[in-house]
Design goal:
Blueprint lengths: L8 E4 H6 L1 H7 L5 E5 L2 E6 L2 H23 L13
Parallel strand pairs: 1-2
Antiparallel strand pairs: 2-3
Pfam family, one: PhdYeFM_antitox
Function: Antitoxin component of a type II toxin-antitoxin (TA) system.
Family: Belongs to the phD/YefM antitoxin family.
Length: about 80
């Protein structure tokens, strides 16, 4: 059965063990699929991309909260009262 690989580059676990930094760099800023017996075991993601992913996730969570509150009644707030 074929397995989808969601990365342009892949490397074996042995390659990762030999030279982790080179494996990450081979992805040129994108994820690298780490294969075990020709199947993806996990994805190696550069720190900068991981940070962007977390920001996107947080933005989507905040957007979901905003959408859920769109029809709520407005509350008047006076800056001096804060």
């Amino acid at each position: 059965m074929a397995t989808a690989i969601y990365a342009d580059r892949s490397a074996s676990i042995s390659e990762l063990k030999k030279n982790p930094t080179a494996t990450v760099k081979s992805g040129e800023g994108r994820p690298v699929a780490i294969l075990n017996h020709s199947k993806p075991a996990f994805y190696c993601v550069p720190a900068s991309l991981y940070e962007k992913m977390l920001e996107i996730i947080e933005d989507r969570q905040l957007a979901r909260i905003v959408r859920s509150r769109l029809n709520e009644e407005e509350v008047e707030v006076n800056w001096e009262d804060l």
